[in-house]
Amino acid sequence: MSNHKIGGIIAGLRREKGCTQEELARAVCVSPQAVSKWENGGVPDTELLPAIADFFAVPIDVLFGRSGAGYQDIMRELAKKIADTAPAQSFDAVFNLCWVLEQAMSGSMPEDGSIQDFRESMGRNRQIYSSKADDYGYTRMNISDRLPYFLIVPEAGDKEAAFFTGIDYPALFKLLSDPDVFNTLVLLNRRDHSKLFTPELLVKELGLDARQAGDILRGLQLYGLVMGMPVELDGAAQELYRFLPTPSFTAMLIFARELIDRPHTFVYLSEHRTKPYLA
Q: Is there a contact between 248 and 129 (Cβ–Cβ < 8 Å)?
């Protein structure tokens, strides 16, 4: 490839980015005259190519006129980036990626900056959502600090089998409609789940009688939320319980809250669905 072509690609990328030769020069620590020389037939030193590519947010191959990395290459790079991220930052890193995907799903080019920057620009206390729905599936995202999440649901082929076959929703909802059952689940989700407990915990913390506490725990056992273990202490039979936590409960609270307090502020909202959600 000729030097002129490399310079032409740099000039084109610079114009596309809307920056001056001086701005590019500062970013890669050269003089504006050097940038001008590249764009008029010169060629950057090899060690500058990574910095130039980073400035334009493109693979180095693009500077040589080759197409960017293929889809599989991009996926591998993303996977490696996430795998190399420290555990304490991994969820934030993935959530930032979800924000990029949500913008792309909405037909927008991702904005510069992280989702934290976006929150700051919109006001940290605001509840801001994004949603896309069409006949191929739907997304839902809470971008704000309170209960942030990202949901994507591709269209299921058999809704009857996916949602209803063999599932008794009314029985679960009837159980959860009892305030004492609901408060028990909240209590257990706030405790160290490695600690065993007896029905006396519900008597002490929720003011229930022993019969109520036993009935509630037996009901929760039906759904695998607690596990009973009969033991004998001082010659008397006693039931110990272990709580088996699941993120499904807190996820249910997220969406139940949105049914109660319906979101009304969306940065992106695309509703082009013609089919009923359960059709």
A: no
Query: 3-class SS at 142?
Result: strand
The half-sphere exposure of 24 on its side-chain side, counting CA atoms within 13 A, is 28
Q: If the chain, 279 residues long, is cut into consecutive pieces of 10 residues, what is the mean pLDDT of each piece? A: 71 88 93 92 88 85 74 78 90 91 84 78 80 95 91 92 95 97 98 95 96 96 94 80 96 95 91 91
pTM, entire model: 0.72
Which tokens in the block code for residue 245? 């936590």
Instruction: Quickly tell me which residue has 């913390």 as its tokens.
Output: 205
**Dihedral over alpha carbons 139, 144, 147, 148 (to 10 degrees):** 50
Give, as one character, the DSSP assignment of residue 150: E
Read off the tokens for 164. 């209803």
Question: What's the chain's length in residues?
Answer: 279
